[in-house]
Amino acid sequence: MTTNVTLDSKVPAARSAVLDDAHLGDIKGALGTIRLDDTADRKGLSAKLKTLLAIVGPGLIVMVGDNDAGAFSTYGQAGQNYGTHLLWTLLLLVPVLYVNQEMVLRLGAVTGVGHARLILERFGKFWGAFSVIDLFLLNGLTLVTEFIGVTLAAGYLGLPKVASVVLAAAVIIASAFTGSFQRFERIAVALCAGSLLLVPIYFMVHPRTSQLAHDFVVPDMPGGTGQLATVMLLIISIVGTTVAPWQLFFQQSYVIDKRITPRFMKYEKADLWIGIVIVVVGAAAMMGFTAAAFAGTDGFGNFTDAGAVAKGLADHGGKVVGVLFAIALLDASIIGAFAVSLSTAYAIGDVFGMKHSLHRGVGGAKGFYAVYAGLVCAAAAIVLASSDHTLGLLTQGVQVLAGVLLPSASVFLLLLCNDKQVLGPWSNGPKVNAFTSAVVGVLVTLSVILTASVLFPDITSRQILDIMAGCGVVGVLVAGFAFTRRFGTSTAASSPSEAAGDWRMPPLETLTRPVMSTGRKVGMGALRGYLFIALILVVVKLVGTALGH
Known about the structure:
- The protein is mainly α.
- Helix content is 71%, strand content 1%.
- A two-stranded antiparallel ribbon has the order 1-2.
């Protein structure tokens, strides 16, 4: 293994599903390089550490990028309005984060094909369009929230709004336009390191660590009758900002662009865990120090935006604390914009067959870079042309929409990871399937509760428990039906570590498209229909909140 290299080692793509030959060659990471012809076993701590450093990037960036401007707003709102009573949601989301992202990194490493392209090829244009259109719309809105974060941070630091937004857009575009994957990743990893500013802020504010530890493991539902819809809206916002659909598309394509293969799967899983630890620590720190800063003040329970959080922190812990928070917000907004813009550009490149790789210069992938830059410029222009009140409402709304749409994205992910032609010996085992199905069920249950709380504002906790019990019974019946359908026809899959080796998916054109059963079509159609209704009710609740009703 080497740490410096100037020329890529190439292999022919004749029997590979990889759609862009720039995705074949040396792994050039921010912290090291692995030659394509370097097939030596990693023996010894030093060799393993160098390999991990070269691989680190996809999991780290996708996780830290998720603690973006929307996350600052969501976690800040949770801490300012409800103290640390919602910290437990982060603990519950850790396994969800890992399982979802592990499945997409496995898809990326094994198939060499982006998430959007796989959905369209395996499910057809009709079903695939639902997932891809969701991504494009949600990503566009999310990117707007990143520039909202830029304006809030700049406003607190006393910087002009227009100049700050234009400069941030220029930095985001220029960082990707270097024509070097390695240079881009070095910039992104440096920004990830900037997210660690949240740790010293935590210690400077001095929240009660014992209370945080208690609320992290003991669930609590703050607020009383009549406030449930607002609390549920915030919980779904936390889900949406912590496990966002764009993450699935980003990590799969980024793993491919980094040229990671199944041989380095365990290192990429370690990279993912590093990112998860950083994102959860950052989120918990934000809830904790925001709760401490606003406890006993007139601002408690009256969240407005992340800029006001910076001011509250400064009033409690001094000017330096407020400045550090604003810098961390600016850093998070830029890394979030990197990830969301790339996620969309990768997906569009996949769908329309354009060359799409950061290894290529602008001249070698004009469409890819045009989409990336166009998204950034459009989002910046929308923020500059909009009122601050409208932007504040949009920030929360985007996180809620992400949480409501997540079950649909998870269903497609689960189906792909059970497609034997796509993943072969790397397909899901029964434990992963059971867990992911349970996650989808919980997410749908949350949206059912949100729907009920919007329609019936005075709903009681007993009625919520009845809804949860009803959803649980339906879930058990569905699981039982699925089990009986498969019992006797499926065989236990071997563990990938035992049987998979370097197995890669054959070229897409050689695969037979799976037949969608009537039951699956009905189930997916019902899910989409319900989520559409839930989206409408989310908008109703957000507008009501904005009007003070």
